[in-house]
Specification:
Biased composition (Basic and acidic residues): 207-219
Strand content: 5-15%
Helix content: 40-55%
Shape: elongated
Distance between the termini: 69 Å
Protein name: FPL domain-containing protein
Radius of gyration: 32 Å
Domain FPL: 11-46
Structural class: alpha+beta
Number of strands: 12
Number of domains: 3
Region (Disordered): 207-228
GO biological process, one term: endosomal transport
């Protein structure tokens, strides 16, 4: 559609546009393809760029189309909230698939909104912003961050955090982003009348006996801001940092509270919202400063400017940058949006500078010391910390440095335990791999996850996830979690000391194998044992094992370690060469947990784990983890020896070789561990 075509219809003013009017009648058709066609047609109309077309589109009753679009979008959001609530109660692939479909629909709607606004029709952009705030953000999303309803429906904080991230990332509207930011930093009682204020389900210090619920009815066409009134402000308790579940009438403090003491989902959601604000180009720096997430380099620039021009000089107003915050904490842009919140949206609020409330930096340092949060989530916190503090130790106070040091020491101790755990042979490789991944993740220019990850969070492994605690796979999950946390805290230690992160871990090189080792005696080369390889069996112990019922086989048993690797070998004696045999079965030495049977002292029980860990990524949906864990079962061997002495000899061989393997791993880790002794 071209401007000339429109002008040919009417030279002065468009009085009728049947094609457009008929098209938007099908905008909410149940068939998705029809909705897509309508959107394609309307976007063509909006991008004509003709004044008369714009005037026609924004006039009554045609402007109701945009109001109905927001209502339609709100219904999708309410539907998603119901799905998320039900999925939390009963995890399953079917419900997860439904949420993915709902998320795709919601994001498609937002991209359409953004295309509409980017067409440059001023009245339409304002209408979309106002209705989005009045019908969705103010009455549903923001209150759910701190309000839980008693005896009624509620809009979950998880869904709200996701939707806020999506709206801010996709809808490139300056007024929308800044208004939401102002709403987060204002001290307010509630965004809905008759609400019982709680911080995510925990009753606030200032309790009110009210009720609140999510209205599933579509808002009436004449909905206005008078239905969204906020009560007078509450004061913020200075002790909120020590009691993060206390009163928090400032929603920014609710986000910080989630980071300090919320569960994985709340932490991921809060970090995502803060990261989204940090990445939103439409947001004024004064808002970032008020939220407590203005990067230090920009704070330094602001303070330097003040020092140069003088705080009280008349030149300050002349030379201060547009985004520089004045000494009372509020600049012109912040005041404008505060006033707009009161006048245009009738939100009664007051602003208190970030001073006494817990800072984001404090919350992040606290987060890194938490042991009930998944490593993947901690990495997200590491990314945000690097964005806020790109200039190393000068930005950390003594408390921050000591907290990081204490967290690192605890994790280092856990890592050393893993060196003698079930998967020590994989520990060094996993460390190197995760080091590179973590460095890449926290140094990236943008977060590595999309907003939808809030709805499908990483969960730290626990026995309730389906795998028995004695399983080697459970131990593998624990090892991966430990390594991921260790490399993050290790990198934060280096970062806080003012050094650049190395690309590789400072591991010591492999040691030479002693000539007296069983591996050398058996004639094993550096590649390790392979099937059909011939070995010298002078140290081997004869045994019997049945891999199938009624089919017992005779083997020579060997436990061998070579550097950080180790194997259990069953070899078949060679009829041609005395004391030589061919390798028939190989299994990992680590994690075999040898045990002599209490009643049959010639029997040795072994647990046989895989040579590699099938679940190589800890970022798993809990439902998938439970399904996958059902097929992960350790092998069990029972070896029968000639006599009790032979059985004990085999047990001793396993223990000695396992100890040798673990000592080599500890030796190679020693330099890296001791280097960060702080």
């Amino acid at each position: 559609m071209r401007v000339q075509v429109v002008n040919d219809l009417n030279k002065e003013e468009i009085v009728a546009f049947p094609l457009y009017v008929e098209a938007i009648r099908f905008a909410f058709h149940e068939e998705g393809m029809i909705r897509t066609a309508v959107r394609a047609l309307t976007l063509n109309v909006y991008h004509v760029g003709d004044v008369s077309v714009n005037k026609y589109i924004a006039s009554i009753p045609h402007a109701d189309y945009f109001l109905n679009l927001v209502k339609f979008f709100r219904e999708h959001c309410i539907s998603l909230n119901g799905m998320v609530s039900r999925t939390t109660e009963s995890l399953g692939l079917e419900s997860t698939s439904s949420i993915f479909s709902a998320v795709d629909e919601i994001e498609d709607n937002l991209y359409y909104f953004n295309d509409v606004v980017s067409a440059g029709i001023p009245d339409v952009g304002t209408l979309v912003t106002d209705t989005m705030l009045k019908l969705l953000i103010f009455p549903l999303l923001l209150p759910s961050l701190r309000v839980e309803v008693s005896g009624g429906k509620k809009f979950g904080s998880v869904t709200s955090l996701y939707l806020l991230c999506c709206i801010l990332r996709i809808l490139k509207i300056k007024d929308l982003a800044n208004t939401v930011a102002v709403a987060l930093i204002c001290s307010i009682e509630g965004l809905l009348p008759n609400s019982e204020a709680k911080l995510n389900g925990f009753r606030a210090d200032h309790e009110e006996n009210h009720d609140s619920h999510v209205d599933d009815e579509k808002p009436s066409g004449n909905s206005d801001s008078s239905s969204i009134i906020v009560s007078p402000s509450l004061s913020i308790s200075p002790s909120v940092q020590h009691n993060s579940r206390g009163s928090a009438s400032v929603l920014r403090d609710a986000l910080i509270s989630f980071i300090m003491s919320g569960d994985d989902v709340q932490v991921v959601g809060s970090l995502s919202v803060l990261a989204t604000f940090l990445q939103t180009k439409e947001l004024d720096e004064s808002m970032l400063d008020a939220l407590g997430i203005l990067p230090q380099r920009k704070q330094h620039k602001k303070l330097l400017l003040k020092a140069l021009v003088g705080e009280d000089s008349g030149e300050e107003q002349l030379f201060a940058s547009e985004n520089s915050t004045s000494k009372d904490g509020n600049d012109g842009d912040l005041n404008i949006y505060l006033q707009r919140l009161k006048d245009q949206y009738e939100v009664s609020c007051s602003y208190h500078e970030v001073g006494e409330s817990p800072r984001v930096l404090d919350a992040l340092i606290s987060l890194f010391g938490r042991t009930n949060i998944s490593a993947d989530t901690l990495w997200d916190g590491g990314w945000l910390l690097r964005q806020l503090l790109p200039y190393s130790e000068t930005e950390f106070n003594n408390h921050h440095l000591q907290s990081l040091k204490d967290s690192f020491k605890k994790c280092r101790s856990q890592l050393l335990d893993e060196a003698r755990g079930t998967w020590p042979d994989l520990l060094l490789q996993v460390l190197c791999d995760e080091w590179r991944k973590c460095k890449r993740a926290i140094e990236a220019s943008s977060p590595r996850k999309e907003p939808k990850s809030i709805l499908f969070p990483t969960k730290k492994y626990s026995p309730s996830d389906g795998m028995p605690a004695e399983s080697s796979f459970a131990a593998g999950e624990t090892m991966y979690e430990c390594v991921k946390v260790f490399v993050l805290l290790h990198q934060l230690q280096i970062f806080s000391a003012g050094r650049s992160l190395p690309d590789q871990l400072p591991l010591l090189p492999p040691a030479d194998f002693p000539e007296s080792s069983r591996a050398k005696t058996a004639g094993l080369n550096v590649t390790g044992p392979k099937l059909t390889t011939e070995l010298y069996l002078v140290d081997a112990v004869p045994c019997r094992i049945a891999f199938e019922r009624g089919k017992e086989r005779h083997f020579s048993f060997l436990g061998i370690s070579m550097g950080t690797s180790g194997w259990i070998i069953l070899a078949e004696e060679s009829p041609q060469r005395l004391n030589y045999g061919t390798v028939r079965v190989v299994a990992p030495l680590a994690g075999c947990k040898p045990r002599i049977d209490e009643r049959h002292t010639r029997w040795l029980h072994l647990r046989i784990r895989p040579s590699t860990l099938p679940l190589t990524e800890t970022a798993k949906n809990v439902a998938n983890l439970k399904l996958k864990s059902k097929s992960l079962v350790d092998g069990r061997w029972t070896l029968a020896f000639r006599d009790e002495a032979s059985c004990k000899s085999a047990l001793t061989m396993i223990l000695e070789e396992t100890d040798s393997q673990c000592k080599e791993i500890e030796r190679r880790l020693r330099h890296m561990i001791s280097e960060e002794e702080m």
